[in-house]
Every structure is written in structure tokens, then in C-alpha cells.
């Protein structure tokens, strides 16, 4: 398995999911773990938007979570594919949340404890 870069990297007890398939939910305990933690939504980022990000967003929604896709933290092989997938995800399956808004949401959640 590859190593995390220095930043961002998991800290403390942060959940790390090792996956074999496109979706972080398929074949993993992610849905049950998030459910046990009473989580209702999840930020999704990564490579590739047309593959893993899309599959994870769809499975998050189908598992009862609100998927929040952060476009500045996603990428794809080509800008047109990236934009088309973000558009489609935002129309049907996920909320597209700009990075600054995502960071503000995370900070407010952290401050609530």
C-alpha cells in the first residue's frame, strides 16, 4: 500500500479505509462505521472524479449519507471529463461544495466537539 504524504495525512484516531474497488463503500465497513458514529454526510475527494469519486458519491447516497464533493480536491484525466462528472454529480447525486465552504463546515463541526 502507498504511503500518505506529510500533509494531508490522517492524525490521531482518524478512520482510514483501505479499498480494492472504485467505491470506498463497496466491500468495506465504511457505511456501518459511519452509521455507528452517527455521521449523516461525508466529504468526498480524490482521483479520479469519473471513477472513484463518482462511485463513492453514488454509494454514499445509496447508503443514506449526504455526499459532499469538493471539486478543488478532485481530479481527472482531462478537464472536460472532470467538469462533466462534477456537473452530473451535482445534478443528481451529491452536493458540490467549494473548498473554502468545505473547510468552514469542517471547522464548525470540529468546534462543536
From TrEMBL:
This protein's UniProt keywords: Hydrolase
InterPro entries, per database record: Isochorismatase-like_dom (IPR000868), Isochorismatase-like_hydrls (IPR050272), Isochorismatase-like_sf (IPR036380)
UniProt domain Isochorismatase-like: residue ranges: 8-97
Pfam families: Isochorismatase
GO function terms (MF aspect): hydrolase activity
Protein name: Isochorismatase-like domain-containing protein
